[in-house]
Write a structure and sequence with these properties.
Layout: H1 19-29, E1 35-41, H2 59-74, E2 81-85, H3 88-98, E3 105-109, H4 131-148, E4 160-166, H5 168-178, E5 196-201, E6 207-214
Parallel strand pairs: 1-4, 2-3, 2-4
Antiparallel strand pairs: 1-5, 5-6
Length: 226
């Protein structure tokens, strides 16, 4: 779903028309629309919760989600969908944001759950998960990247605007992969709660980062990173 040539079975190329046939078939596989991906980090949540269901948003976190929802609505864009992590804090953030975007369908997925995508370089002393966690979470988060971050389908006629509500580790890893930066550098970035990261994927496959962790729409006393 990234390179048009990869979507064609070259063994079936018509030997008589040759390159003309190939060019015609390539034309049907090339993307025409631009995808706008808005990656939202969940709002502040209760860090004392032992299980995921107990890690609900704090009162401040709910305020942050309201501010993020209002900001997204103020952009005046026709959002196509909201895809969110199935974890409680992401689901609750989505529910609040969606009130500001009536009619936009919501889809929950386990692929976007928080985790350890890849061992960071340089390493940090305050966060050292077991090595097995990188293998378990890394494969899933990479699958999320491959599944969601790609150029538009050739059948898509108009530009699309999609929201993904998930987690800091997931967003940082996706940004590195999308920009073709070494993914091991994901932990060098920091994202505030409720922040907006905006990726643009052009029909030719080129990716641009228009915003990273934007919370300029929040009052300073509402900004957190926990």
């Amino acid at each position: 779903r990234r390179e048009p040539l990869a979507l064609i079975n070259l063994k079936k190329k018509n030997e008589e028309t040759g390159e003309e046939e190939l060019a015609s078939r390539l034309g049907h596989c090339k993307a025409k629309a631009t995808r706008h991906i808005f990656l939202i980090r969940h709002s502040q949540y209760n860090l004392d919760g032992r299980a995921d269901k107990d890690r609900t948003l704090t009162p401040l976190g709910r305020e942050q989600a309201e501010l993020t929802g209002h900001r997204l609505a103020s952009l005046g864009l026709k959002f196509d969908q909201i895809i969110h992590s199935s974890m409680t804090r992401a689901t609750e953030t989505t529910e609040i944001i969606s009130k500001h975007l009536p009619g936009v369908k919501k889809i929950s997925t386990d692929l976007l759950r928080e985790g350890a995508p890849i061992e960071p370089d340089p390493p940090v002393s305050h966060w050292k998960p077991e090595a097995v966690q990188y293998y378990e979470d890394g494969a899933r988060i990479e699958a999320a990247f491959r599944n969601f971050i790609h150029r538009a389908d050739a059948k898509q006629e108009e530009d699309s605007y999609e929201i993904f509500v998930c987690h800091a580790n997931v967003i940082r890893y996706i940004v590195c992969r999308a920009l073709q930066f070494p993914p091991e550098g994901w932990l060098r970035m920091s994202l505030n709660n409720g922040s907006i990261t905006h990726l643009v994927i052009r029909p030719n496959g080129r990716v641009a980062l228009r915003a990273l962790g934007d919370t300029g729409f929040m009052p300073p006393d509402k900004i957190t990173r926990t």
